[in-house]
């Protein structure tokens, strides 16, 4: 009976999914309604799998809403590309409406995660003589909380149906009233969750440590959830849910459990967290596990989207010349280009450094794509500005030198062959209110090459595990909590731990980052951006620091109601359970 009721709930979600995406509809039918989900392991695998089926790995889902709406990223129309009815640039221009397909897809995928988590809870709870029942039930409840939290954050509402009650009515949780219960739910399952690496767990599973990170995140943003439209700031020092200290005390408590855990340590090479072989790295707490060699979808979007089409990691792959950062975010790095998190040159096995400054003649062809003899060209990492260099194609392969090395040349845009691939910090849209470039302007915008491009299979697949929570983010949360408690010395200590733990490449004698000597609100905000850019955190940060409503590049000053997105029109049409968010 419980399972049947969950299928009714899934039917509501499926009606919505059918409007926005046929493929999603088919996946939900197979994985949520299929009889194989009477097997609890299959059911919980489906709940985990939804994280990688677009939700947290595709640029047009959670990433798009959390990043394109901020100063860290925008996806402009570039000549004949990325127009798509204006849906992408609308997210940055703050002109989105309930019919925007980016919003709809994100809502559908998060709702599918909720549905699959509820199905997993029911399946595990109904299982007889199941050895892992307690652990799997806790993990399924944790996943439900994780999907629900992100839905409440972005949309202010989330559907729910009690999986333990037969004939339970459909409920719609509201962020301001649901956040306390969500925190209590995650705290309640803590005793039943495994510690990372115990009971065969890894960082792709919802462990105690993933729960600590989620709780710190929820407590940091609880004040925003409770008073989303405030024009006078947020009460970050409100009493915690259990009245034991304040919200910020709880952030400090849960982050400290992770910072003090010897399993975790900061990477000296910051970009190691985002390499294609980052599985199990010591800074990663909770990730979306990606593997090309499984039936699950994997996604290369976070690397693919910023790269120009003529930037080719292998003769088989290319970028798409789409996403860039804004002049505002790039300017926060002024005077800090020596920060190890700003950029990093690649060194080949024979000692050759790719300088990307016009001095490169060639690099060795000894680095090959996994499982093949196809040469692999490695672009530098971080924020890339100015003229770009790399290999060109000749007869289907890389152009080579006489001594069989990959020839390095000045690059020109694929769709405007007279236009150099010169990533300009300025954007200078012809209409300042619209993120639209002509074909003669498609090179504009500094690009973020934070994630390593995985050229093993194709543009759509990757082995990169996508960090959802990692230790560097946890230090930022604790630093902000200390700062909001007026403990600036402790906040600065955490920021300096991040700064000095990262080191530059051997080209610069492995020099560590430089500590700062003062910290105010603006510099803290900047420091958090240096550590967490491109990781789906910026929108929440901008709201907390009072930056989200301000005018910026291709974005007019906005009203507080834009701090959440509307419920998609397809969902409103499919069910009367939802009420549209204010002013939408």
UniProtKB/TrEMBL annotation:
CC per GO annotation: cell outer membrane
Record flagged with keyword Membrane: yes
Subcellular localization(s) per the UniProt record: Cell outer membrane
Alphabetized Gene3D superfamilies for the sequence: 1.25.40.390
Domain called RagB/SusD: residue spans: 282-584
Superkingdom of this protein's organism: Bacteria
Keywords noted in UniProt: Cell outer membrane, Membrane, Signal
InterPro entries: SusD_RagB_dom, TPR-like_helical_dom_sf
Family of the protein in this entry: Belongs to the SusD family.
Name of the protein in its database record: RagB/SusD family nutrient uptake outer membrane protein
Organism: Chitinophaga oryziterrae
Lineage: Bacteria, Pseudomonadati, Bacteroidota, Chitinophagia, Chitinophagales
């Amino acid at each position: 009976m419980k399972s049947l009721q969950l299928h009714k709930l899934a039917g509501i979600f499926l009606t919505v999914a059918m409007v926005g995406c046929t493929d999603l509809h088919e996946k939900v039918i197979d994985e949520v309604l299929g009889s194989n989900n009477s097997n609890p392991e299959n059911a919980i695998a489906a709940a985990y799998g939804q994280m990688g089926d677009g939700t947290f790995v595709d640029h047009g889902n959670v990433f798009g809403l959390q990043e394109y709406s901020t100063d860290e990223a925008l996806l402009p129309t570039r000549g004949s590309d990325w127009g798509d009815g204006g849906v992408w640039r609308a997210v940055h221009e703050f002109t989105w409406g309930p019919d925007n397909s980016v919003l709809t897809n994100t809502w559908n995928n998060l709702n599918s995660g909720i549905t699959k988590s509820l199905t997993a809870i029911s399946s595990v709870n109904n299982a007889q003589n199941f050895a892992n029942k307690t652990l799997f039930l806790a993990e399924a409840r944790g996943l439900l909380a994780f999907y629900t939290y992100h839905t409440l954050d972005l949309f202010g509402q989330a559907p729910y149906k009690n999986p333990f009650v037969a004939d339970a009515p459909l409920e719609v949780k509201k962020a301001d009233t649901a956040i306390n219960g969500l925190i209590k739910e995650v705290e309640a399952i803590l005793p039943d969750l495994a510690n990372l690496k115990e009971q065969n767990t890894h960082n792709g599973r919802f462990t105690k440590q993933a729960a600590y990170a989620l709780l710190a995140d929820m407590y940091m943003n609880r004040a925003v959830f409770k008073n989303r439209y405030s024009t006078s700031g947020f009460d970050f020092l409100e009493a915690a849910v259990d009245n034991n200290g304040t919200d910020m005390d709880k952030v400090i408590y849960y982050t400290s459990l992770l910072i003090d855990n010897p399993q975790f340590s900061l990477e000296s090479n910051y970009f190691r967290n985002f390499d294609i072989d980052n599985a199990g790295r010591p800074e990663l707490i909770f990730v979306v596990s990606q593997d090309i060699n499984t039936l699950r979808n994997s996604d290369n979007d976070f690397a693919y989207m910023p790269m120009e089409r003529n930037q080719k990691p292998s003769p088989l792959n290319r970028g798409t010349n789409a996403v860039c950062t804004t002049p505002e975010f790039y300017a926060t790095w002024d005077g800090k280009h020596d920060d190890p998190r700003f950029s990093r040159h690649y060194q080949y096995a024979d000692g050759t450094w790719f300088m990307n400054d016009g001095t490169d003649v060639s690099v060795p062809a000894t680095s090959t794509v996994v499982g093949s003899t196809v040469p692999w060209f490695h672009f530098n990492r971080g924020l890339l500005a100015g003229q770009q260099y790399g290999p060109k194609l000749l007869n289907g392969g890389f152009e080579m030198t006489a001594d069989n090395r990959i020839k390095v040349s000045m690059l020109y845009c694929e769709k405007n062959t007279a236009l150099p691939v010169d990533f300009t910090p300025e954007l200078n849209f012809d209409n300042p209110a619209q993120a639209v470039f002509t074909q003669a302007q498609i090179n504009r915008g500094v690009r973020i090459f934070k994630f390593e491009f995985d050229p093993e299979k194709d543009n759509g697949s990757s082995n990169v595990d996508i960090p959802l929570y990692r230790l560097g983010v946890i230090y930022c949360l604790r630093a902000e909590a200390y700062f909001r408690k007026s403990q600036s010395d402790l906040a600065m200590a955490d920021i300096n731990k991040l700064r000095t733990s990262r080191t530059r490449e051997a080209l610069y004698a492995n020099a560590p980052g430089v500590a700062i000597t003062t910290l105010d609100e603006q510099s803290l905000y900047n420091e958090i951006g240096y550590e967490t850019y491109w990781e789906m955190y910026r929108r929440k940060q901008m709201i907390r620091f009072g930056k989200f409503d301000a005018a910026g590049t291709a974005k007019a000053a906005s009203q507080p109601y834009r701090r959440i997105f509307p419920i998609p029109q397809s969902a409103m049409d499919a069910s009367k359970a939802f009420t549209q968010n204010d002013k939408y």
